[in-house]
Every structure is written in C-alpha cells, then in structure tokens.
Amino acid sequence: MKSMFIAATSAASVPIEYKFNEYVSNYGKSYATHDEYHFRMNLFAKKDQLIEQWNADLKNTHFLGHNHFSDMTDHEMSKIVGEPMHKANRDVPVKVLPADDLPATVNWTETKGAVNPVGN
Asked: Is there a domain that residue 26 lies in?
C-alpha cells in the first residue's frame, strides 16, 4: 500500500516552497534578505514549471532537473556560461565556401600545424 501512495504522489503536488528549500539545502544556497529569498524562489518556480512540463511530455527522449543555476536570472547565467550559440552568433553573417576542389584527406599535424601529434 505504501508503494502505491508513493507512485501516486507526483513532483507537481509538492509545494514549491518545500521544493525550493530542499534545493537551497542541497546546493548550499543562502540569501541576504527575505526579499532576495522570494525573488530567487520565484525564479526557481518558473524553471520548475518548465522542467515539469518538459518531463511530462512523453515525446522527449531525456529528462530535465534542477542544478545550481535554477535560482539565477538569464543574465547571471550568461556571465558564467556565456551566451548560447544561437544568441551569440545571430548577427554574424555566414560565408559559404566552394567545396569543389577540396583534398580527399588533410593531415593537420604535418601540413597545417594546427594540432599536435598524439602524445603518451
């Protein structure tokens, strides 16, 4: 009977403040003020909702979960991990080069000096 209760209890039924406090404990987070605590909990709640929606879609081939970024703004995250490629390069023009006279193989260690030989 106990296992049926556990299976019937979904992550979505857990109050967000409980989930956030567990997150704070697991990642050793602390906040200077009550206002910051609530600000971070709201960020966490938005990401939690996205995670729950993603994980509920059976077409997805992987699951999402929380990490140490779950209470950060997009701007704070971009300072740590940089801009996503699709955002960072959106204004860079793409130049397509002709591919008609390319060599069959290239040894980048000998002819181009681009990489070192394999070391032990």
From this structure: yes
- 71 is written with which tokens? 């209470």
Number of domains in the chain: 1
Instruction: Judge residue 20's burial from the number of C-beta atoms within 10 Å of its C-beta, 0-12 exposed, 13-18 middle, 19 or more buried.
Output: buried
Q: Which two tokens stand for residue 65?
A: 């979960």
With respect to residue 27, please indicate whether it lies within any of the assigned structural domains.
yes
**What is the helix, strand, coil percentage profile of the chain, to 5?**
50, 0, 50
Q: Which pTM was predicted? A: 0.60
The single-letter code of the amino acid at 79 is K
Exposure class string for 77-109: b at 16+ Cβ within 10 A, else e: eeeeeeeeeeeeeeeeeeeeeeeeeeeeeeeee
The SS3 of residue 99 is coil
pLDDT per residue over 26-61, tens digit each? 999 999 999 999 999 999 999 999 999 999 999 999
